Each structure stands twice: as C-alpha cells, then as structure tokens.
Fold:
Amino acid sequence: MTVIISTIILLGVMGFGFGIFLAFAAKKFEVKEDVRTIAVQASLPGINCGACGFPGCSGFAKAYIENRAKNDGCLPGRKSGVPQKLEKISKLTDDQLQKFFEETEGDIEKTIKKIMEN
Structure:
C-alpha cells in the first residue's frame, strides 16, 4: 500500500515540476508577433494564391511591412479595397495601431473595421 501512495506522490511532484518547467520555457522562448504584420495580413483576402510574388498572404504582409511590396501588390484584393486598407494601416504609428488593437480586445477583424472608420 505504501508503494502505491509513494508512487502517486512521486508522479504528482514530477508532474508539478515539469509543468513549472514548461511554463518557464514558454515564457522564455515566446515569439512576439508584430501588430502591423497581423493587421496587414487580416486585411488581405487570405486565399494564399501567391499572385503577388510572395509565399502566401503572410509573406506578402511581412514584405509590405518591410517596404518590399507595394500596397496594390495583392491582385485578388484590389477589387475588395485592400490597397486602401493597407494605406491607412501604414499611416498609423505603432502606438495608434496598438491602441486600436487594445480597444477591440484583440479582435483583429474589429480592429481593421475601426481603422477604416477613422
């Protein structure tokens, strides 16, 4: 009986220890994503066609933020107003964009809608 109890206690302590280690590792190696890239990618149609010359919408969003792509580079998005959205996003400062993001509680679709209203 004592073997079973000691085994349960040992496994519980090991599980707790591993959980603490994983929580620490998750914080230590966390990758922060740029809010601008998220906003630009959310403005794109999301079909990942590659017609812009970049590997999907995420590649185009990163290239646009790095000034390697023009705002009208997304061919399928031209009709849906993507260039205008990207123009408005590029005129915002990081602080303004972060403020919009926080006001909408992290909902990127609402953030884009609010940016377009202003």
User: Anything to note?
Assistant: The radius of gyration is 22 Å. The chain has a mean pLDDT of 88. The chain has six helices and no strands. The CA atoms of residues 51 and 75 lie 6 Å apart.
